[in-house]
Specification:
Elements (H helix, E strand, L loop, with lengths): L3 E5 L4 H13 L3 E6 L18 E5 L5 H9 L3 E4 L6 H6 L2 H21 L2 E7 L25 H20 L3 E6 L2 E2 L8 H10 L5 E3 L5 E3 L1 E2 H14 L5 E4 L4 E3 H11 L8 E3 L14 H7 L8 H14 L1 H17 L3
Parallel strand pairs: 1-2, 1-4, 2-3, 4-5, 5-6, 6-11, 7-10, 8-13
Antiparallel strand pairs: 9-12
Bound molecules: nicotinamide-adenine-dinucleotide and thymidine-5'-diphospho-beta-D-xylose (TDX).
Thymidine-5'-diphospho-beta-D-xylose (TDX) binds next to α6 and β8.
Protein backbone atom coordinates (compact mmCIF):
# COMPACT_ATOMS: atom_id res chain seq x y z
CA UNK A 1 0.00 0.00 0.00
CA UNK A 2 1.39 3.41 -0.84
CA UNK A 3 2.01 5.97 1.91
CA UNK A 4 2.19 9.73 2.04
CA UNK A 5 5.55 10.78 3.48
CA UNK A 6 6.47 14.14 4.95
CA UNK A 7 10.21 14.56 4.25
CA UNK A 8 11.76 17.51 6.06
CA UNK A 9 14.93 18.95 4.54
CA UNK A 10 14.06 17.17 1.28
CA UNK A 11 15.55 19.99 -0.82
CA UNK A 12 18.99 19.54 0.76
CA UNK A 13 21.85 17.22 -0.15
CA UNK A 14 20.84 13.93 1.51
CA UNK A 15 17.09 14.62 1.77
CA UNK A 16 16.79 15.24 -1.99
CA UNK A 17 18.56 11.97 -2.77
CA UNK A 18 16.13 10.21 -0.41
CA UNK A 19 13.12 11.77 -2.19
CA UNK A 20 14.44 10.62 -5.60
CA UNK A 21 15.07 7.16 -4.10
CA UNK A 22 11.51 6.91 -2.71
CA UNK A 23 9.99 7.89 -6.06
CA UNK A 24 12.13 5.32 -7.86
CA UNK A 25 11.66 2.42 -5.44
CA UNK A 26 8.14 2.79 -3.95
CA UNK A 27 4.63 3.97 -4.85
CA UNK A 28 4.69 6.52 -2.02
CA UNK A 29 3.91 10.20 -2.49
CA UNK A 30 5.99 12.86 -0.76
CA UNK A 31 5.55 16.34 0.64
CA UNK A 32 8.88 18.04 1.19
CA UNK A 33 8.96 20.63 3.98
CA UNK A 34 12.08 22.75 3.52
CA UNK A 35 12.99 26.28 4.52
CA UNK A 36 15.33 26.60 1.51
CA UNK A 37 18.20 27.97 3.58
CA UNK A 38 21.55 28.54 1.84
CA UNK A 39 21.83 24.69 1.78
CA UNK A 40 18.50 23.91 0.11
CA UNK A 41 17.69 24.21 -3.60
CA UNK A 42 14.33 23.62 -5.26
CA UNK A 43 16.22 22.48 -8.38
CA UNK A 44 17.43 19.40 -6.46
CA UNK A 45 13.86 18.09 -6.94
CA UNK A 46 13.86 18.69 -10.71
CA UNK A 47 12.56 15.81 -12.80
CA UNK A 48 10.14 14.52 -10.16
CA UNK A 49 6.47 14.43 -11.15
CA UNK A 50 4.07 16.82 -9.39
CA UNK A 51 1.76 13.86 -8.82
CA UNK A 52 4.41 12.22 -6.61
CA UNK A 53 6.28 15.12 -4.95
CA UNK A 54 5.27 18.57 -3.75
CA UNK A 55 7.35 21.20 -1.98
CA UNK A 56 6.18 23.37 0.92
CA UNK A 57 8.65 26.13 1.76
CA UNK A 58 8.60 26.53 5.54
CA UNK A 59 10.37 26.07 8.85
CA UNK A 60 10.25 22.84 10.87
CA UNK A 61 10.14 24.99 13.99
CA UNK A 62 6.88 26.63 12.82
CA UNK A 63 4.21 24.70 14.72
CA UNK A 64 1.37 25.96 12.50
CA UNK A 65 2.84 24.65 9.24
CA UNK A 66 4.05 21.44 10.85
CA UNK A 67 0.69 20.62 12.45
CA UNK A 68 -1.17 20.65 9.15
CA UNK A 69 1.46 18.71 7.19
CA UNK A 70 1.92 16.03 9.85
CA UNK A 71 -1.87 15.57 10.09
CA UNK A 72 -1.98 14.83 6.32
CA UNK A 73 0.95 12.37 6.26
CA UNK A 74 1.33 8.69 7.18
CA UNK A 75 4.97 9.03 8.26
CA UNK A 76 7.58 11.74 8.81
CA UNK A 77 11.22 11.35 7.77
CA UNK A 78 13.16 14.16 9.42
CA UNK A 79 16.34 15.27 7.60
CA UNK A 80 16.08 19.05 8.08
CA UNK A 81 19.00 20.44 10.06
CA UNK A 82 21.74 22.99 10.13
CA UNK A 83 24.47 20.54 9.15
CA UNK A 84 27.93 22.15 8.98
CA UNK A 85 30.32 21.96 11.94
CA UNK A 86 32.36 25.01 10.92
CA UNK A 87 29.20 27.16 10.75
CA UNK A 88 28.17 25.95 14.21
CA UNK A 89 31.48 27.24 15.57
CA UNK A 90 30.97 30.73 14.12
CA UNK A 91 27.24 31.02 15.01
CA UNK A 92 25.54 28.22 16.96
CA UNK A 93 22.10 29.88 17.28
CA UNK A 94 20.38 28.54 14.11
CA UNK A 95 21.57 25.07 15.10
CA UNK A 96 19.68 25.28 18.38
CA UNK A 97 16.51 26.53 16.73
CA UNK A 98 16.38 24.11 13.79
CA UNK A 99 17.96 21.00 15.26
CA UNK A 100 16.40 21.15 18.73
CA UNK A 101 13.22 23.26 18.53
CA UNK A 102 12.49 21.94 15.02
CA UNK A 103 12.73 18.31 16.16
CA UNK A 104 10.64 19.06 19.25
CA UNK A 105 7.95 20.73 17.10
CA UNK A 106 7.75 17.72 14.76
CA UNK A 107 7.69 15.23 17.65
CA UNK A 108 4.80 17.03 19.32
CA UNK A 109 2.79 16.92 16.09
CA UNK A 110 3.67 13.23 15.53
CA UNK A 111 2.53 12.53 19.09
CA UNK A 112 -0.79 14.37 18.69
CA UNK A 113 -1.57 12.69 15.38
CA UNK A 114 -0.05 9.28 16.24
CA UNK A 115 2.24 9.24 13.21
CA UNK A 116 5.32 7.10 12.47
CA UNK A 117 8.51 9.18 12.80
CA UNK A 118 12.03 8.49 11.54
CA UNK A 119 14.84 10.71 12.78
CA UNK A 120 18.02 11.21 10.72
CA UNK A 121 21.13 11.68 12.79
CA UNK A 122 24.89 11.44 12.66
CA UNK A 123 27.78 9.37 14.02
CA UNK A 124 29.19 12.62 15.44
CA UNK A 125 26.95 12.27 18.50
CA UNK A 126 29.45 9.66 19.79
CA UNK A 127 32.42 12.04 19.77
CA UNK A 128 35.62 10.63 18.27
CA UNK A 129 37.97 7.65 18.39
CA UNK A 130 41.75 7.36 18.54
CA UNK A 131 43.38 6.52 15.20
CA UNK A 132 44.49 3.10 16.48
CA UNK A 133 41.36 2.22 18.49
CA UNK A 134 40.18 -1.27 17.38
CA UNK A 135 36.60 -0.39 18.44
CA UNK A 136 34.10 1.33 16.15
CA UNK A 137 30.91 3.19 17.17
CA UNK A 138 27.93 0.92 17.86
CA UNK A 139 24.36 1.55 19.03
CA UNK A 140 25.54 1.21 22.66
CA UNK A 141 28.45 3.70 22.48
CA UNK A 142 28.01 6.54 25.00
CA UNK A 143 27.10 9.96 23.59
CA UNK A 144 29.99 12.46 23.75
CA UNK A 145 29.47 15.23 21.17
CA UNK A 146 32.23 17.80 20.55
CA UNK A 147 30.82 20.70 18.49
CA UNK A 148 27.69 22.85 18.79
CA UNK A 149 26.39 21.00 15.69
CA UNK A 150 26.91 17.52 17.13
CA UNK A 151 25.62 18.61 20.55
CA UNK A 152 22.34 19.75 19.00
CA UNK A 153 22.07 16.50 16.99
CA UNK A 154 22.73 14.52 20.20
CA UNK A 155 20.03 16.57 21.94
CA UNK A 156 17.58 15.93 19.12
CA UNK A 157 18.23 12.16 19.38
CA UNK A 158 17.53 12.34 23.12
CA UNK A 159 14.25 14.14 22.48
CA UNK A 160 13.18 11.39 20.06
CA UNK A 161 14.08 8.66 22.56
CA UNK A 162 12.18 10.47 25.34
CA UNK A 163 9.08 10.90 23.14
CA UNK A 164 9.16 7.15 22.41
CA UNK A 165 9.46 6.19 26.06
CA UNK A 166 7.24 8.79 27.68
CA UNK A 167 4.56 9.28 25.03
CA UNK A 168 4.71 6.10 22.93
CA UNK A 169 5.65 7.90 19.70
CA UNK A 170 6.36 5.27 17.00
CA UNK A 171 9.86 6.45 16.17
CA UNK A 172 13.13 5.01 14.91
CA UNK A 173 16.54 6.70 14.63
CA UNK A 174 19.51 6.25 12.31
CA UNK A 175 23.00 7.67 12.80
CA UNK A 176 25.05 7.73 9.61
CA UNK A 177 28.69 8.37 8.81
CA UNK A 178 30.01 11.00 6.34
CA UNK A 179 28.08 11.09 3.05
CA UNK A 180 29.52 11.93 -0.35
CA UNK A 181 27.97 12.28 -3.80
CA UNK A 182 26.35 14.83 -6.13
CA UNK A 183 24.59 17.95 -4.78
CA UNK A 184 26.60 18.29 -1.53
CA UNK A 185 27.17 21.92 -0.60
CA UNK A 186 30.56 23.46 -1.52
CA UNK A 187 31.22 24.27 2.14
CA UNK A 188 31.76 20.53 2.83
CA UNK A 189 35.16 18.83 2.53
CA UNK A 190 34.96 16.84 -0.73
CA UNK A 191 32.98 19.39 -2.82
CA UNK A 192 35.20 22.20 -1.54
CA UNK A 193 38.36 20.51 -2.78
CA UNK A 194 36.86 19.46 -6.14
CA UNK A 195 35.55 22.96 -6.86
CA UNK A 196 38.81 24.53 -5.63
CA UNK A 197 40.69 22.47 -8.19
CA UNK A 198 38.21 23.41 -10.93
CA UNK A 199 39.02 27.04 -9.99
CA UNK A 200 42.78 26.43 -9.88
CA UNK A 201 42.99 26.73 -6.05
CA UNK A 202 44.99 24.18 -4.04
CA UNK A 203 42.98 21.88 -1.71
CA UNK A 204 43.00 22.86 1.97
CA UNK A 205 43.56 20.24 4.67
CA UNK A 206 42.85 21.16 8.29
CA UNK A 207 45.70 20.51 10.75
CA UNK A 208 47.94 17.67 9.60
CA UNK A 209 45.24 16.06 7.43
CA UNK A 210 45.35 12.89 9.53
CA UNK A 211 41.69 12.96 10.70
CA UNK A 212 39.69 9.95 9.55
CA UNK A 213 36.12 9.91 8.27
CA UNK A 214 34.04 6.83 7.35
CA UNK A 215 32.65 7.62 3.88
CA UNK A 216 29.35 6.29 2.50
CA UNK A 217 27.71 7.10 -0.83
CA UNK A 218 24.57 9.19 -0.32
CA UNK A 219 22.45 6.65 -2.27
CA UNK A 220 23.43 3.95 0.20
CA UNK A 221 22.28 6.22 3.03
CA UNK A 222 18.90 6.56 1.25
CA UNK A 223 18.40 2.80 0.83
CA UNK A 224 19.28 2.24 4.50
CA UNK A 225 16.82 4.90 5.70
CA UNK A 226 14.01 3.39 3.61
CA UNK A 227 14.85 -0.04 5.06
CA UNK A 228 14.65 1.27 8.64
CA UNK A 229 11.42 3.15 7.90
CA UNK A 230 9.87 -0.05 6.50
CA UNK A 231 11.30 -2.71 8.80
CA UNK A 232 13.06 -1.07 11.78
CA UNK A 233 11.96 -1.88 15.33
CA UNK A 234 10.17 1.01 17.03
CA UNK A 235 12.34 2.82 19.57
CA UNK A 236 15.57 1.45 18.09
CA UNK A 237 18.63 3.17 16.70
CA UNK A 238 20.43 1.83 13.61
CA UNK A 239 23.96 2.90 12.72
CA UNK A 240 24.50 3.34 8.97
CA UNK A 241 27.99 2.92 7.52
CA UNK A 242 29.75 1.15 4.67
CA UNK A 243 33.29 0.37 5.97
CA UNK A 244 34.69 3.44 4.22
CA UNK A 245 37.38 4.78 6.59
CA UNK A 246 39.91 7.11 4.96
CA UNK A 247 42.13 9.89 6.25
CA UNK A 248 41.40 13.36 4.86
CA UNK A 249 44.84 13.34 3.29
CA UNK A 250 44.10 10.08 1.45
CA UNK A 251 40.86 11.59 0.11
CA UNK A 252 42.60 14.75 -1.09
CA UNK A 253 45.34 12.70 -2.76
CA UNK A 254 42.69 10.67 -4.62
CA UNK A 255 40.90 13.86 -5.75
CA UNK A 256 44.21 15.34 -6.94
CA UNK A 257 45.08 12.16 -8.82
CA UNK A 258 41.63 11.92 -10.46
CA UNK A 259 41.80 15.60 -11.47
CA UNK A 260 45.22 15.20 -13.07
CA UNK A 261 47.32 16.93 -10.40
CA UNK A 262 50.36 15.93 -8.31
CA UNK A 263 49.67 14.10 -5.01
CA UNK A 264 51.37 16.80 -2.94
CA UNK A 265 49.50 19.77 -4.46
CA UNK A 266 47.61 20.73 -1.28
CA UNK A 267 48.07 23.18 1.64
CA UNK A 268 47.81 22.47 5.36
CA UNK A 269 45.72 25.21 7.02
CA UNK A 270 44.49 26.23 10.49
CA UNK A 271 42.81 23.30 12.22
CA UNK A 272 39.12 23.26 13.20
CA UNK A 273 38.77 23.98 16.96
CA UNK A 274 37.78 20.77 18.78
CA UNK A 275 38.29 18.80 15.52
CA UNK A 276 37.13 15.18 15.99
CA UNK A 277 39.98 12.82 15.16
CA UNK A 278 38.25 9.73 13.80
CA UNK A 279 34.75 8.40 13.14
CA UNK A 280 34.10 4.72 12.39
CA UNK A 281 30.78 2.88 12.28
CA UNK A 282 30.00 -0.75 13.05
CA UNK A 283 26.86 -1.32 10.94
CA UNK A 284 26.29 -4.95 12.11
CA UNK A 285 22.78 -4.38 13.47
CA UNK A 286 21.52 -2.88 10.22
CA UNK A 287 23.13 -5.63 8.14
CA UNK A 288 22.25 -8.61 10.33
CA UNK A 289 18.80 -7.58 11.56
CA UNK A 290 17.44 -5.86 8.45
CA UNK A 291 19.62 -7.47 5.75
CA UNK A 292 20.80 -4.11 4.34
CA UNK A 293 23.93 -3.99 2.18
CA UNK A 294 25.63 -0.98 0.54
CA UNK A 295 25.66 -0.92 -3.26
CA UNK A 296 28.49 1.62 -3.77
CA UNK A 297 31.49 -0.28 -2.42
CA UNK A 298 34.11 1.34 -4.67
CA UNK A 299 34.95 4.78 -3.25
CA UNK A 300 37.25 5.66 -6.15
CA UNK A 301 34.57 5.21 -8.83
CA UNK A 302 31.97 6.98 -6.63
CA UNK A 303 34.42 9.85 -6.23
CA UNK A 304 35.11 10.00 -9.98
CA UNK A 305 31.35 10.24 -10.68
CA UNK A 306 31.04 12.96 -8.02
CA UNK A 307 33.90 14.97 -9.60
CA UNK A 308 32.17 14.65 -12.98
CA UNK A 309 28.89 15.90 -11.46
CA UNK A 310 30.60 19.09 -10.17
CA UNK A 311 32.20 19.63 -13.58
CA UNK A 312 28.81 19.25 -15.29
CA UNK A 313 26.66 21.21 -12.80
CA UNK A 314 28.53 24.43 -12.13
CA UNK A 315 25.23 26.33 -12.05
CA UNK A 316 24.32 24.56 -8.77
CA UNK A 317 27.44 25.57 -6.84
CA UNK A 318 29.02 28.58 -8.58
CA UNK A 319 26.68 31.20 -7.01
CA UNK A 320 27.81 30.24 -3.47
CA UNK A 321 31.48 29.40 -4.03
CA UNK A 322 33.07 32.85 -3.59
CA UNK A 323 31.21 33.63 -0.35
CA UNK A 324 32.11 30.23 1.13
CA UNK A 325 35.80 30.72 0.29
CA UNK A 326 35.78 34.27 1.71
CA UNK A 327 34.43 32.93 5.00
CA UNK A 328 37.09 30.21 5.13
CA UNK A 329 39.83 32.69 4.25
CA UNK A 330 38.79 34.91 7.17
CA UNK A 331 39.24 31.91 9.48
CA UNK A 332 42.67 31.10 8.02
CA UNK A 333 41.28 28.01 6.30
P1 LIG B 1 22.15 20.08 4.12
O1 LIG B 1 22.66 21.20 4.95
O2 LIG B 1 22.71 19.82 2.77
O3 LIG B 1 20.57 20.19 3.95
C1 LIG B 1 19.72 20.57 5.00
C2 LIG B 1 18.36 20.89 4.43
O4 LIG B 1 17.49 21.25 5.52
C3 LIG B 1 18.37 22.08 3.46
O5 LIG B 1 17.55 21.81 2.34
C4 LIG B 1 17.80 23.23 4.28
O6 LIG B 1 17.14 24.20 3.50
C5 LIG B 1 16.85 22.47 5.19
N1 LIG B 1 16.58 23.21 6.44
C6 LIG B 1 17.49 23.77 7.27
N2 LIG B 1 16.86 24.38 8.29
C7 LIG B 1 15.53 24.16 8.12
C8 LIG B 1 14.37 24.52 8.86
N3 LIG B 1 14.45 25.23 9.99
N4 LIG B 1 13.17 24.13 8.41
C9 LIG B 1 13.07 23.42 7.25
N5 LIG B 1 14.13 23.07 6.50
C10 LIG B 1 15.34 23.42 6.94
O7 LIG B 1 22.35 18.78 5.07
P2 LIG B 1 22.63 17.26 4.69
O8 LIG B 1 24.07 17.05 4.63
O9 LIG B 1 21.76 16.87 3.56
O10 LIG B 1 22.11 16.56 6.04
C11 LIG B 1 20.76 16.13 6.16
C12 LIG B 1 20.59 15.40 7.48
O11 LIG B 1 21.48 14.30 7.56
C13 LIG B 1 20.90 16.27 8.70
O12 LIG B 1 19.97 15.94 9.71
C14 LIG B 1 22.30 15.84 9.11
O13 LIG B 1 22.51 16.02 10.49
C15 LIG B 1 22.26 14.38 8.74
N6 LIG B 1 23.56 13.75 8.44
C16 LIG B 1 24.39 14.30 7.50
C17 LIG B 1 25.58 13.65 7.17
C18 LIG B 1 26.51 14.19 6.11
O14 LIG B 1 27.56 13.61 5.86
N7 LIG B 1 26.18 15.27 5.42
C19 LIG B 1 25.92 12.46 7.83
C20 LIG B 1 25.06 11.95 8.80
C21 LIG B 1 23.87 12.58 9.08
O1 LIG C 1 38.35 22.46 3.77
C1 LIG C 1 38.26 21.52 4.57
N1 LIG C 1 39.39 20.84 4.93
C2 LIG C 1 39.37 19.80 5.80
O2 LIG C 1 40.42 19.21 6.11
C3 LIG C 1 36.99 21.12 5.13
C4 LIG C 1 35.72 21.85 4.77
C5 LIG C 1 36.98 20.05 6.00
N2 LIG C 1 38.14 19.41 6.34
C6 LIG C 1 38.08 18.22 7.22
C7 LIG C 1 37.24 18.33 8.47
C8 LIG C 1 36.78 16.90 8.66
O3 LIG C 1 37.80 16.14 9.31
O4 LIG C 1 37.45 17.19 6.43
C9 LIG C 1 36.62 16.36 7.25
C10 LIG C 1 35.19 16.41 6.73
O5 LIG C 1 34.71 17.73 6.99
P1 LIG C 1 33.18 18.15 6.70
O6 LIG C 1 32.84 17.89 5.29
O7 LIG C 1 32.97 19.50 7.27
O8 LIG C 1 32.38 17.02 7.54
P2 LIG C 1 32.34 16.62 9.10
O9 LIG C 1 32.73 17.75 9.97
O10 LIG C 1 33.07 15.32 9.24
O11 LIG C 1 30.76 16.38 9.26
C11 LIG C 1 30.00 15.70 8.23
O12 LIG C 1 29.74 14.38 8.58
C12 LIG C 1 28.82 14.18 9.63
C13 LIG C 1 28.71 16.45 7.92
O13 LIG C 1 28.99 17.79 7.55
C14 LIG C 1 27.76 16.37 9.07
O14 LIG C 1 26.51 16.96 8.73
C15 LIG C 1 27.54 14.94 9.43
O15 LIG C 1 26.75 14.84 10.58
Amino acid sequence: MSRHLLVTGGAGFIGSHFVHHVVEHTDDTVTVLDKLTYAGDEAFLDGLSDSRVSLVVGDVADAGIVEDLVAKSDAIVHFAAESHNDNSLSDPSPFLRTNLIGTFTLLEAARRHEKRFHHISTDEVYGDLELDDPERFSETTAYNPSSPYSATKAGSDMLVRAWVRSFGVQATLSNCSNNYGPRQHVEKFIPRQITNLIDGIRPRLYGAGQNVRDWIHVDDHSSAVLKVLDEGRIGETYLIGADGEKSNREVVELILEQMGRQKGDFDLVTDRPGHDLRYAIDPSRLREELGWEPRFRDFESGLAATIQWYRDHERFWRPQKAAVEAKYAAAGQ
